[in-house]
Predict the 3D structure of the following.
Amino acid sequence: MHLLVTGGAGFIGSHLIRYFLGAHGDCRVTNLDSLTYAGNLANLRDLEDSSRYCFVKGDITDGDFLMRFFAETRFDGVIHLAAESHVDRSIANPTAFAETNVLGTVNLLNAIKASWEGDFSGRLFYHVSTDEVYGSLPAGEGLFTEETPYDPHSPYSASKASSDHFVRAYHDTYGLPVVISNCSNNYGPFQFPEKLIPLFINNIKSGKALPLYGKGENVRDWLWVEDHARAIDTIYYHGKIGETYNIGGHNEWSNISLVRLLCRIMDDRLGRNAGSSEELISFVTDRAGHDMRYAIDASKLKQELGWVPSITFEEGLAKTVDWYLSNGDWLEEVTSGAYQDYYEDHYGKR
Ligand code: NAD
Ligand code: TYD
């Protein structure tokens, strides 16, 4: 089987490629990624020499490129993760989110449809989406199910919601075999240190303030990234075409409780006095349009396909902290910007 993963140099995509290659000895993976600031080929350093892995630098906003690319190779399946993914960046520059997440997805659908035309059987376009399309839940009440109406608030979630609608439209209109999953917040190794957990690990390590938005009361449902990769694999092979699956950890934490736990783990690992990292917490102006609470009902995935999360949040967060502390070089290359030379160093001029 020859699979295309888009956005494979990012956080979740790199875990997904590693998972697929490890789980399926008969599988080849091509990784198509334009290497934005979020793409880092060092995330896949251990796979570089594999004959079953190949990297192609390409931008999904370039429809002509995609048409040529898909005319050259008929992939058996595509798992689409390439996206602009950070809410704060979407508030600062919404257009980039419309271009990559909406137009890029439509370009991809067009190129895949042309490549697979007349022979959809055995093929699948898997669209990786987010629970943020469902909007915001009130504190302590309700869960997002697959039937929850879309109600996005940020430019990021609006762009992902739009891409989900296009994917369904290509299934309903042209019969393209698609599946969509909507997942809650991921955490783990290789996450870019602009997102809450790696940013705060990095700040605690260097004694910098921890900017907690508003009162820190917002709630997120956190999932270990390898559990997300395993859920995608399960849905890819066993999910029903045309269906949507919610993926989540049943693991809700308010930001303040999460950060306090993180501070305790960091104090322990860094040999600092208990309570010293908490002193770095600084309440700052709230994010505009900040969704109060996300929480996923993942019972469809459990009942139909038998998927459940594998580790507790306490275990996963401790593993994440340990990974960042023992991979200081990775963090240093990312924060200094040196990681952006990786492509030229390994693949020649851009
Ligand atoms: P990320 O920002 O770490 O990685 C995104 C990748 O896409 C990067 O490698 C980047 O270079 C690539 N990319 C961006 N624009 C591109 C373009 N125009 N052409 C080709 N490649 C491009 O993101 P992530 O956190 O790994 O998220 C991956 C996917 O999962 C996204 O679609 C996101 O919406 C979804 N998702 C993320 C989370 C989460 O908690 N991180 C949760 C649910 C769903
Ligand atoms: P983030 O990791 O950006 O994910 P998302 O916005 O997609 O949920 O943020 C997680 C939560 O942490 C969210 O409620 C916003 C909050 N947050 C802060 O309080 N301070 C920060 O510096 C960041 C990046 C996030």
